Amino acid sequence: xxxxxxxxxxxxxxxxxxxxxxxxxxxxxxxxxxxxxxxxxxxxxxxxxxxxxxxxxxxxxxxxxxxxxxxxxxxxxxxxxxxxxxxxxxxxxxxxxxxxxxxxxxxxxxxxxxxxxxxxxxxxxxxxxxxxxxxxxxxxxxxxxxxxxxxxxxxxxxxxxxxxxxxxxxxxxxxxxxxxxxxxxxxxxxxxxxxxxxxxxxxxxxxxxxxxxxxxxxxxxxxxxxxxxxxxxxxxxxxxxxxxxxxxxxxxxxxxxxxxxxxxxxxxxxxxxxxxxxxxxxxxxxxxxxxxxxxxxxxxxxxxxxxxxxxxxxxxxxxxxxxx
Amino acid sequence: xxxxxxxxxxxxxxxxxxxxxxxxxxxxxxxxxxxxxxxxxxxxxxxxxxxxxxxxxxxxxxxxxxxxxxxxxxxxxxxxxxxxxxxxxxxxxxxxxxxxxxxxxxxxxxxxxxxxxxxxxxxxxxxxxxxxxxxxxxxxxxxxxxxxxxxxxxxxxxxxxxxxxxxxxxxxxxxxxxxxxxxxxxxxxxxxxxxxxxxxxxxxxxxxxxxxxxxxxxxxxxxxxxxxxxxxxxxxxxxxxxxxxxxxxxxxxxxxxxxxxxxxxxxxxxxxxxxxxxxxxxxxxxxxxxxxxxxxxxxxxxxxxxxxxxxxxxxxx
Lengths: 324, 317
Prior knowledge:
- The complex is a heterodimer.
- Chain A is built from 11 helices and 13 strands.
- By secondary structure, chain A is of the alpha/beta class.
- Chain B has a single domain, classed as TIM Barrel (Alpha-Beta Barrel), CATH 3.20.20.
- In chain B, the strands form 3 sheets. A 6-stranded parallel β-sheet of chain B has the order 6-7-8-9-10-11, sandwiched between helices. Chain B has a 3-stranded parallel β-sheet with strand order 3-4-5. A two-stranded antiparallel ribbon of chain B has the order 1-2.
- In chain B, β7 (135-139), α5 and β8 form a beta-alpha-beta unit.
């Protein structure tokens, strides 16, 4: 089943797009570095994980949040049955994603398969793997398929896209084309180049969201505006993060205002990139509600209109997740 | 007191009996669990596995050493039930088949962290199973040379072996100079290391088996049965007679006490099709008869399959 017009695949089934409400597109629920589940010093207590995530989702909902997109893909701790229970319990719509990346995060099955020579997977095979997660259901490894992925997400290596990253990007793009779900990319060292790879697969630009555009290097290169000009969605998805690599929130507000003034208010998405529960890494411990509680007042203070704010929080993500 | 860790608890080495030293209940590359083409129902996994282990037991097989690394589908709860129901002792391993089968959490880890992972699995338990690993698996990544990560894993394995007394079993014995240098730097006696797969079709020609043995290492002819004569030979297959001659030549060179043999078969492969008809029971159905035909006496066969593995597997504490 492909995404029907005006519905969105959530872990509890298709939901009318108009019911999503405020959407946070680039967040993580349970985030596990591949392999950490086998680590001697890491415990994953499902009851604890559920309790923590449920509290965070309830907080998100209490502040006006409607839908949370777990954009971590199929191999970074995704737990579909847990997300179903969380959605039922908290009333927050949860969209889970397929996809993988960057290359470093892949299992050897994809990089050094049992063939001679051990040729890494090509784009077409990744496309098949990801597409099945939309059309047949997301894998609970070696057990069953459940639900349908609502997004295909991939990432390039920070120092620059590798050949296998490119296969992942092209495979993700073909998945979007075949199924109608949007594709989320997190670029490596060059946002516009990496966007070009998925556009080269003929995915309509408005079906693509580019994450990480509030990174300083991307802003210095003019990537947020150029991404919007090409018609893709611009995700400023580190709201609340202020470090060497990223803009401050004040600078982020200025960037939003600049994009809106340039006529791209319909291309901007806001998200925190928060990690609900992190295993094997530090994660990013911000409330999912941070955009609503802290960043929206900053936007208002800057003079961004309520209509534009609503567009960024509700309309743009709705159109991204649902438009066929 | 001799002691060997099996998935159902430590046993005396005297109870091991005939040992298949390098086998797999089921092996899959990390990530293969995401590809439904390989999935099998639990019913089918037992159907494929139990008869092979039962036959192994009926042939007189005592112990099955599973060499499936941490991220390769190692499933200790499954092994426990198989062992309890068939009477075959199963030894599980800690460690990795090669750096290219270690997932990012471990690929990024320091030697110290990897050492603690291995020691924990040997002395405290694997995951929440309470089962103790009995051997440490290490190996050379695809490509023929040890990678930096391979070397970190070898060094951590050496330290864990010294700390716990557990032996090390290698996947491939190519680039052995680097491996032996690491073991020497760490002060690990080489009789605690089984250099495996010296007989495989791809690497046999570039594996310095005699040199490794001269340094004191144990030598694993442990891909017996992967033969080019099979209808679906894997790329590492080798002509049957060529492998057997290699083995006999090596044993004939006075190395009987350093040699171990196994079939490296999968009972129920997890992330690849496997090789039809190739099972651990090749040891009884083909290998031991071939060795008898070649003139090896029962004492020599006992040395290869009972005494050498017992010495190797016994925790050195």
